[in-house]
Amino acid sequence: MLNEKYIAALRRSKSQGIGMQDQDDSIECEKEMQHIYRIIMANNVVITDLDEAKLEQFINFELESGVKFLAPDRDGIEYVDLDQDVAIYPCAKRGFMTYPLEDKSFTMKATDAKKMVAQLARMGRLDLLNATMQGLAQRQDGVKLQTAFPLVSEVKLVVKSGLELPVELIKKMDEWGEDVELNFDFVEI
Questions:
Q1: Which of 81, 99, 113, 131 is the most exposed place for a label (fewest CB within 10 A)?
Q2: What is the pLDDT of residue 72?
Q3: Rounded CA gap, 1 and 55, in Å?
Q4: 171 vs 88: CA distance, rounded Å
Q5: Helix and strand tally (H, E) in the chain?
Q6: What's the per-residue H, E or C state across 55-118?
Q7: Which residues contact 68 (CB under 8 A, 6 or more apart)?
Q8: Which range (69-73, 143-147, 154-158) has the least confidence?
Q9: What distance in Å separates the CA atoms of residue 26 and residue 9, rounded to the nearest whole number?
Q10: Distance between CA 152 and CA 45 in Å, rounded?
Q11: Which of 85, 112, 89 is nearest to 99 (CA)?
């Protein structure tokens, strides 16, 4: 039977995977969430399809076989479709979790996303996105996403160094504040 940390981690992972907020952040389960992430990535399982029984089967297999699930290295800008628009939204930290700020978002056109990535590459700053890029979420329609989540303050520093972003996005970043994460949801290839 799964312990309370794995149950909380599964609930939070599923909530994040569909862009919802899990109101209960009283249990520290970051280690368990990372383990679940490795399991879903290694087994190509969609987080919304994973229930407690399936998770327990994966963990038991790991324990019995001695084989650890390792996530394949498929996170990063090279695994995104830059011909698709990018959903951008701010997330605030509450307890151990981050949650999207309600009714706050920006859609970056694919042409602007390509320009941004090309500029970051020329500036040697692709780490702004790659350092946090994870392929854990999916949209409501089942499309898998790669999400980068730098702080607004980090993005603004790169803008000061010459990164050109749409004016509307810069205005929104000013409204959202410096201490929030700026989630960039890229469509995964």
A1: 131
A2: 55
A3: 10
A4: 13
A5: 7, 5
A6: HHHHHHHHHHHCCCCCCCCCCCHHHECCCCCEEEEEEEEECCEEEECCCCCEEECHHHHHHHHH
A7: 38, 62
A8: 69-73
A9: 11
A10: 31
A11: 89
As a dihedral over the C-alpha atoms of residue 85, residue 121, residue 105, residue 148, rounded to 10 degrees, the angle is 100
Which tokens go with 110?
């694919």
Q: Whole-angstrom Cα distance, residue 53 to residue 50?
A: 8
Report helix, strand or coil for 123.
Answer: helix
Give the domain ranges of the chain. 4-65, 77-187
Interval 99-117: pLDDT, tens:
888 889 999 999 999 999 9
- Closest of 147, 151, 156 to residue 179, by C-alpha: 151
